[in-house]
Structures are given as structure tokens and as C-alpha cells.
Amino acid sequence: MTEEKMPSFMRSLCMGRIEQDVLLPFPTMRDGDKEMLQGVAEALSSMLGAHEEDFRRWDREGEFPSEYIDELKEFGAFGLIIPEDEGGLGFGSMAYSRALQEVAKYDASTAVTIGAHSSIGMRGLKLFGTDEQKKRYYPKLSTGEMIAAFCLTEPGAGSDAASIATVAKRDGDDWVLNGNKLWITNGGIASFFTVFAKTDASKRGGMTAFIVTTEMEGVSVGPHEDKMGLRASSTTTVNFDEVRVPADHMLGEEGQGFKVAMKILNSGRTGLGGGSVGAMKKIIEMATAQASERKQFGQAIKDFGLIQQKIGQMVVDCYAAESVVTLVAGLVDAGHEDYAVEAAISKVFATEALWRTADEGLQVAGGNGYMCEFPYERMLRDCRINRIFEGTNDILRLFIALTGMNGVASELKELASLRKSIFSHPIKGFGVLSDYATKQAQLRTGIRAEGTHFTRLVPELAAYADSFEDATRELATATDRVLRKHGKGIIGKQFATRRLAEIMIDLFVWAAVMARVNDAIAAGADDAEQQREILHVFAGAATKRIRHQLRRIDDNDDETLKSVAAHAFELGRFAWDTI
Amino acid sequence: MKILVPIKRVADPDNANKVKVAPDGSSVTSEGLEWKLNPFDEWSLEAALRLTENAAEKSRVGEVVVVTIGPKDATQTIRQGLAMGAERAIRVEGDDAQLDAWQVASVLAAVAKKEQPDLIIMGKQVVDGDSNVVPQYLAELLGWPALNYAQSLTTDAEGKTVKAQRELDTGVETLEVDGPAVITCADRILHPQAVKNGVTPDDFTYPAIEGGRYATLKGIMKAKRKPIDETTVGDLGVEAAATVQYTAFELPPARSGNTTFVESVEELVEKLHADAKVL
Q1: Does domain A148-258 have CATH number 3.40.50.1450?
Q2: pLDDT for A381-415, tens place per residue?
Q3: Chain A: which residues have CB within 8 Å of chain B?
Q4: How many Å apart are CA A288 and CA A294, to the nearest integer?
Q5: A40–B218: do the CB atoms touch at under 8 Å?
Q6: CATH number for the domain running over A26-143
């Protein structure tokens, strides 16, 4: 744990400050962990490599055989994040994320089975459990004797998690639980559920988290869902009918369920990010092999520019995703507490980078890519859900922008209240007002104020640092402008919010890539120049995207597009035909 | 039963093309290469683990001690052996690239005298130097019987007598030997029913695998806490001088990479004689 509390990189960035100490040095694993993780990666690839043919079959059959789940238990795959003295492997975020990367190279259904257990299913116990709760459940969870599932989503409560209908009513020493949960990963194989239920009907979001086990009467699960991807993993409904949950099975405090759920999701994000990176690495391996072997027009297709463009972009995307996921995992391991925006960015970026990579990898393979004989189509199907579950990327974009600009909002609020009371608090008032005016002037002119510039980067990166600082000033100015224009009404301005989110995503990923390349150059890595080239491509593209988004804040067709949509909603169909 | 399994790390045999010779030809450099467990040693360790467990109940009934000669880095290879299931390990400090077969055998003999195992099971050779003489030297130094290229091993529950099959050009030879003995294994030892120890039920079938068993994550974590004795050649009282002097190393000439297809055996013989000059 760090002694002093480090600020959120993105919140600061929105105010024009670059907290380079959050980025540098780019997190690395300790030597001992590195050696062990190498062993773990080798072990995983021996175990999973033997099942490569099976994974294809299990995908078609739509279910893992129970012997395979037993093999995973025996292997120790369910104990990744449980402390060593409780029988687990004691992995921190970086090691856990890296382990899931290895699993995802082979099979996404396996990765999500392990991930739903560790990233979210039992994460609540790890973060909020009492010693007694941990003592009771850790041993069984680490061996996989109990597999865990996270039960939040309901038929009427998806992105709007606060609107759940499952209720828990206090009755003596127990809580009596009633309700139905939907699309629960591991539902069919789990016996440990982290369940969210409403405990205060009078308050929106007045909910509480509970540990519920299949030993309790009234817990039942529905049939195995037939899905587009991740077909072999278990997804079911989980139903609670008059389930008596002892009061000591509460996770966290009564009424704090929403916070518990969000903390779990934030903390588990690097698992999904790691999985996405693993799948990308595998696709790049397959696509480069395919492009080297496949000949058309008398030459290997890897000699064609359009194929090189695709492979190059995949590598840039993968490097960027790995950098941002690793940076966030490093922040978690270093004891940072304020990383929710950064974690959300890593999830959005990594899952979309994987989608692009899976799509383009399939394109490189051409017709073969569309055949079930090859893994491309399965990987494309498997990764589609990543943009939907653990918080849809749309909701996360709103979250990123709104939370990111929080600091600016409170600054403006203070300013507004002071402006009114400036005559009663003249000294304080003038101080704050002039600070604000100075800051705005600096943002607009780029005067080198302390904390708004990189000072720890190697000279080779000066040009990238400059354009990053320019973009940061633009972001801070734009945030200020948007907030002053909309005030509290920003909540309803999703078009504008999304634009800020896109800028923030690009900037944080850029920062992560830059920090990683910086350390590679500083360490004299053999391939530092190749890494700098990746930064060059990413930074160039990001600069253009950011410029475009900034321009569109004031000059856009938002209202026209809304009107087009409104027309379609009115008719309930597409209005035109050429007959 | 206690089995001593000598193991050695080798430069990743799947990337042997990355092995380089120092500019002055004095040595082979393995910089930047990943270390792997010598495959022959891996099979032997697998055989030793099968002889000392009840596979049906997944419990251990004997002890496997792995030993290696190498620098501190070689600990990684030892950990792999421990993660696969060996009980403990011994590392004898030494430069594994410089020792010759006689020195290795002398060190291993000293370790064996100290450890008093019922059997030594080891790879018949190491894929870097490919000498294939250490097991024979070792048996000679210890005065123990040597049994090479076993394709199956059967012991009774006490493990004193070992029945082994060896595949020869002339057929399969079945031998029985009383321990202690030095045994080397062929790859057929990995057959699902090649090893029987009188404890694991006779009808038990191991999964078909290509190398040794994989280390589980649990195994890796347990290995972190298993004991590794560190000792030196001097502590073991070994004074063996090298009997082989390496004078120079050079890489084989690069292959041209040209492929020629021939229509007939006659043409092949002609080309081998006239062009390739190997006949």
C-alpha cells in the first residue's frame, strides 16, 4: 500500500494536470513473481494445449463435460486470487491478469469460467468478507469444491443495476430472499453465489450483498442457456424462493450493496482485460502464419500492403491494450484506490481492440476464417459479449466521462458559490477566482505551469509528450466549456458526454503506451525502436481522433441525427423502399 | 522406495537454431535462450514419479529426489521437477557448460553415496552434449548394475526388485535387477501402462502424454516451499579432473535450402554421387 493517496490520473487530467508519477515507472513484476508466472504460463499451456481439439467440440456441443471442470479444479485454476495460506495461489492483479491472458489464448469459455469465479464471483468475499466468512469459504473456493458466481443482473435490471427486484426481508436472525437472476455465468456449476437484493424498498438502490450457497433451501438454477459465444461455459438463471440466509452471510454493510457491486466490478476488470489481450496475441499468431503461407497472385499475401496494414494495426492495438491493462493492474497492486475511471477505460479499450482484431484476423484468413474448422469464427463469437457484460461499453463511456470530469465540476461549483458570496469572503473569493483565471489562461496559452508537463520522459519521446500535453490542455478546456454550458444537465447530454469519453480513453491509453515505451528505451531494450514505432502510430491516430471529437463538440449534427431516430421510433420501422 | 533422478537444463531444443558459437570458437553461447528440462530427464522423472505413487488415490508412497549440477539459475529447472511432484532437490554448485561426463558422473556418485537411493533413474543422454556415457560411468563408480533404455518398469510394492523391458533391434528383452541400480529410459516409458509399482492398481491407465506430466498450479505453489539442498563439489569431496578438453566449436555449415525433386531411385543415386558427393 502506498503511504500517500495517489490521485486518479484521469480526474487530474481533466483539470489539465499530468500526474506522471502514476504512470512511471511502468509497472513490472518482481523477479520472483516473474519466474513463477513463467512456470504458471507453461503449466497452463501444457494443460490447455492438450485440449485444443476438445475446445472446438465443446463449443459445438455447448457445454463442458464435468470431467474437464474437475481437471480445472485439480489443476488449481480456481485458487488464483485466494491467499497462499488459505490454499490459493495468492496472485495480485498483474499476475492474475497475466494468467487469464494465457488461458484466453486457448479457450475463452475456460477463461470466463475461471474469470467469473475469481474476478467477480468471489471477489466480494475477498474485498468485503469478514475473517469468519473467509475462513469458512476460502478453502472450498480455492480447490474449486465450491465454484462462485456473481448474481446481479435481472430480467428488469441490466445496465440499471439499482433497479433490481430481488428482495431480502429481515426475519429474526435470517434474511428471507426472493427473486430471479438472469444470465448468471457459472450458474449451473456454482454453489457459492454473491447475490444482490433490495433491503430498503423506500430507497432507489437500497440494496445489500449476501453470500448464498446451494446448501440453503430454495435456491434453484434454470437450464443451460444457448448462446452465440462462450458456448461451453455455463450460463443460467438462478432463482431464490423463500431462501433463508443467516444474517452473518451479509457481505459489506446493510444498504451498501450498490457500492459493493461497483467495487467488485472495478476490481475485477483486469481479468477481462487480460483475457482480451491473450486472445489478441493468439489471433496475431494465427493471422501472421496464415498470411505467410497463403499465396495469391503468385506471392504470399503478407507481401500485400492491405494485409500488412491489418497485421500492423492488430499489433498496435494489442500493445496498447496490454499496456493499459497492465498499468491498471499495477495501480491496483500498488494500493491505489481511485482507479475506477482508469479500469473502465482499460475494459472498454481492450474489449474493442479484441473485437477489431478478431474481425480483421478473420478477414486475413478469408473464406477459411468463416469456416468452423478454423478457430477464427469461434473467437469472434466468443469475444462479442465482452463489450456487453461487466458493464456495457456504452454505460462505461458515460461513467468514464462523468466521473472523469467530477473534479472540474466541483471546482466550478465552488466558483459559482464564491461568485455569489464574494463580498462576504472577499479574500478567499478573490484567491480562488484568480487561481481559476490563471489556470484557464495557462490552459489556453500552454504556459509551462508545474504539473502540466512531463518531466520524467526520455528525450526520444519529447515530440509525443508535447502533443499529449497539447491534447490534455484541449481536454481540460473542453471539459470546462461543456460543463459551464450544460451544468448539471450534462447527465442527459449523452452525445457530448460520449465525445469527452472518447478523448479520455485515447489519452489514457496513449499515456500507458508512452510510459511503457519510455521504460523500454530507458532500459535499453533491444526492441525499443519497434516499441517506439508502435507509440508513433498510436499517438498519431489518437491525435487525429481527439482533434475530430473536439471539433464536433460545438459543430455537430446531434440534433439532426436525433430527429432521424425519432422518426424511426414513431414508425417502428425503416420508412423507405425503392420499389 | 527412494529414487534419485539427476536432471539437467538444456537450451530450448525447439529453438536450437538460436544457439551461437562465440566469435573466438572457444564456447557455445546460450544467451537469450530459454532453459528447458532435458526431455530424456523429463521422461525419467515421470517414470520415477509413477513408481512412487498410488495414481488411483493420487497419493505419494515413496520419495523422489531430483539433483542437478549448475549455477543458481538452474534452480528454475529444479523447481519444475519439484512442481511435477518430486519431494526435494539437491543443487550442486557448478558450471554445467564446462563439466565433462566423467566429472558429472563423479559428482552424482558422491551424491548417491550420501543419499543411498533404491534406484537412480535418469535420461540416457542430454540433448545438448549428447554424450550418452554418464549413466554407465555412474553405475561403474557405484558398482551398481546399469540397465539402459527401459521401455517398461515393474516393481513389487517394496520396490527392491525391478523388472524391465528393453526394446532392441532383435526384439524385446526382459531383465530383472535387484536395486540399487542405475536405469535409463526410452520414450516408450510414457506409455499409459508402462510403469507398474504394485501399489497403483494394475488396471490403472495413465493418460497418453508426450513429455512428463504437467505441473499443476498447486504443484508450482507447493514447489516454492519444498526443500532444496545446496552443496558444492568440494563439500561432496569430489576431485575429478576433466578428461575431455574442448579445443574449438564451430557451427555446421548453413544448408543451402534448395530442394530438388527426383523422378527415380537411379536419378537420386546419381545426384547423391555427382552433386552432393556423399556416395
Answers
A1: no
A2: 999 999 999 999 999 999 999 999 988 888 887 77
A3: 35-36, 38-40, 42-44, 46-47, 50, 74-77, 79-80, 84, 89-90
A4: 10
A5: no
A6: 1.10.540.10
